[in-house]
Amino acid sequence: MNNRSNGLLMRSLDGIERTGNRLPHPVTLFALFALMVVLASGLFAALGTAVQHPDPDEGVIQVESLMTVEGVQYMFESAVDNFVGFAPLGTVLVTMLGIGIAERSGLISAALRAMVMSVPKQLITAALVFGGIMSSMAADAGYVVLTPLGAVLFAGLGRHPIAGLAAAFGGVSAGFSANLLLTSLDPLLGDLTIAAAAIYDPSYAEGMNIMMNYYFIFASVFVLTIVGTLVTEKIVEPRLGKYDGGIGEVPEKLSGIEKRGLLAAGLAFVLTLAAAALLVVPDWAPLRDAGADSIIEGLNPFFASLVPIILIMFFIPGYIYGRITNEIKDDKDVANKMSDTMAAMGMYVVLAFVAGQFVAYFEKTNLGLVMSVSGAEFLQGLGLQDAGIPLLIAFILVAGFINLFIGSASAKWALMAPVFVPLMMAMGISPEATQLAYRIADSTTNVISPLMPYFAIVIAFAQKYDKKAGIGTLIATMLPYSIAFTIIWIIMLVVWILTGAPLGPGAPVMYP
Predict the structure, then answer these.
(1) Of the candidates 133, 233, 289, 431, which lies 20 to 30 Å from 391 by C-alpha distance?
(2) What tens digit of pLDDT does each residue of 330-386 get?
(3) Which of 305, 327, 314 is nearest to 272 (CA)?
(4) Which residues cross the membrane (predicted)?
């Protein structure tokens, strides 16, 4: 690596790290934002701030102050409801119950190892990238399982291990929002988006569902796998050169009992999938409204039931695998593993409490709606009311920059959705498209953010093969993935917009 460019890169990263370290903890950050909303509501209400609702029938929207007797009563009386009613809280915790069983029984780890070890050597890079992208179905499991496995696989094949680590890390982190299946991220962000859309148009929000980006993220898996493979083999690996570290490990093979467990879990998954299909496909299916006007509307009961379905789809194969491998012996083991999963979600629960207060205050005071209408009027004054594509690209770049400092996808979206979703709706861009633009930004800059929670762990993995590896090493290695994924995703989004294809079931790109 060139010393001059490395020094410049390190100085830039040091500045980002110093700035990021000055930010409060996300819990404190949301508490401060909630306080700011209270103070701002008092100030703007005193100034008589008001805007005309885009729908003339709705009249004038005024800022409501929380710095009144009624406002203080509301904050105390609604604190519990604001927490319990925080959109992603229940959906995330419920889905994690099923994912936790699959992960803690060892099913996720074994499945990832089986996938990347069963393909020809020529396809190992593509398998790593694909496996990394798909690992988002198990939340953060890919970081601690697939990333070091990628390095071990490449070392065993005589290739540079850090290139294998980079391929896996690029798929896991930069491709986090893509998947062939729905993951916990879909209900987590989707519920926030629907709640934000309701601020501007409650009737439109009622017709939305958490599969709003599914078609796009499904197609993204194949495109990003190709792009990630090319970046690894044409840019990253040639730059790293030949590896002379002398570590030629062979990844741990699946044992006989693990193979039997995977086979049984696979069969259980197929049977569970078939049972789920019976709940929605036939005309008499309980999760289908046969009297609906359209197929999409007829599937609304299914969309509303996706969270428990996701739980079951992970729980049953995970339980079967655990029984075969003796990781789960009885109901006590099941309860303990689910309990351990919930214990690991403790920080998220704390964050949900303060974020729930902020979101509720923001909606109660009408600040979100006033800001959205005012922002839309400002952009319209600049002549950008028809600039859907430039607006979305600008939003991707802004959200990606914010992601360098605040890693939590839910924390950022809980903050940004109430502002940007109504704003984009006022500019003619659908909530579904705004959420998708956010997901693109949130994924692509993960791999170049030193403040991303798993960044330090990945550096530790890299130092096993290069003692001098540090922040600059990893950033320089991962930057091509970040740039390539951002560009290709923006191109895909532009193509989607120009063709008018839906982003998901009943999810248009433009707001009617």
Answers:
(1) 133
(2) 999 999 999 998 987 787 788 789 888 887 888 888 887 777 667 656 655 655 555
(3) 314
(4) 27-47, 83-102, 123-146, 152-172, 179-200, 212-232, 262-282, 302-321, 342-362, 387-406, 413-431, 443-462, 474-498
Backbone angles phi, psi at 143, to 5 degrees: -60, -45
Helix ranges (H only) for 47-84 are 69-77, 79-84
CA 309 to chain centre: 19
Report yes or no: 373 and 426 within 8 Å, Cβ to Cβ.
Answer: yes
Q: What angle do the packed helices 124-134 and 107-117 form, to 10 degrees?
A: 160
Alpha carbon distance 189, 409 (integer Å): 8
434-437 CB contacts, 8 Å cutoff, 24+ apart:
434/193, 434/392, 434/395, 435/189, 435/190, 435/193, 435/212, 435/213, 436/212, 436/213, 436/216, 436/493, 436/503, 437/392, 437/395, 437/396, 437/399, 437/493
Residue count of the chain, please give it.
Answer: 512
- Which residues touch 166 (CB under 8 Å, ≥6 apart)? 150, 232, 236, 477, 478, 481
Q: What is the distance between the alpha carbons of residues 227 and 231, in angstroms, rounded to a whole number? A: 6
Threshold 0.70, pTM exceeds: no
- Cα dist from 108 to 103, 124, 475, whole Å: 5, 19, 28
pLDDT digits (tens, 9 = 90+) for 211-229: 899 999 999 999 999 999 9
DSSP, collapsed to helix, strand or coil, labels residue 468 as coil
3-state SS, residue 61: strand
Q: Biggest alpha carbon distance in the chain?
A: 74
Tell me how many degrees the CA angle 210-214-216 measures, rounded to the nearest 5. Answer: 140
Rounded distance, CA 487 to CA 508, Å?
A: 22
